[in-house]
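Researcher: Sequence recovery benchmark, item below. Answer with residues only.
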């Protein structure tokens, strides 16, 4: 459902704002459509199927973003540099 909604609008990637290739199947190439959970499922599983929480993104942008932490340490500041 999210794919069809975004394809009809030709929605760009919500991260990089560039056009998405809607000609190829979803999640098939780096520039193809992949639904991205605005609030990651790891942070709020109840929003997994909520269409308002799924935004158009490139497969590559979504995979780079991951769970929204972008590789940052969610545990807080390190006590010292190791």
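Model:
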């Amino acid at each position: 459902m999210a794919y069809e909604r975004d394809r009809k609008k030709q929605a760009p990637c919500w991260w990089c704002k560039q056009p998405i290739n809607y000609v190829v199947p979803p999640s098939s190439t780096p520039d193809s459509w992949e639904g991205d959970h605005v609030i990651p499922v790891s942070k709020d599983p109840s929003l997994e199927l909520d269409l308002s929480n799924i935004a158009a993104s490139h497969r590559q942008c979504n995979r780079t973003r991951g769970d929204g932490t972008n590789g940052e340490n969610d545990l807080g500041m390190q006590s010292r540099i190791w």
